[in-house]
Design goal:
By secondary structure, the protein is an all-alpha fold. It has one domain. It is built from 3 helices and no strands. Helix 1 packs antiparallel against helix 2 (34-78) and helix 2 packs across helix 3.
């Protein structure tokens, strides 16, 4: 998965879908008959869409995490001493910052 621009849903997008579905389902509870069935179907459709978008985002995040872990592993394998020095420097800096408190 090499830097492919995959549109991921924002939390606001999914939240809006869920809120719309909730309002449709509440409206369906207040009415009866064919209109209620139509509102319920639309609400359930919106919830299904929100679920699908969240699953897509979860899959994208997992793939990006695997890619980043593989890149980090390759870097450490290629430059082990640079990695050790960077980790030591970071540990020293954090130790000094924490010691000041």
């Amino acid at each position: 998965m090499e830097n492919q621009p995959i549109p991921t849903p924002s939390q606001g997008d999914v939240g809006a879908l869920v809120r719309d579905a909730q309002s449709l389902l509440r409206a369906a509870a207040a009415v009866t008959g064919e209109k209620a069935d139509s509102l319920r179907a639309r609400g359930l459709g919106l919830l299904d869409t929100a679920l699908a978008r969240m699953q897509q985002a979860r899959g994208y995040a997992a793939a990006r995490g695997r890619d980043m872990a593989a890149s980090a592993d390759a870097y450490v394998q290629d430059k082990p001493w640079r990695t050790v020095l960077a980790a030591a420097a970071l540990g020293l800096a954090l130790g000094l910052l924490l010691r000041r408190r």
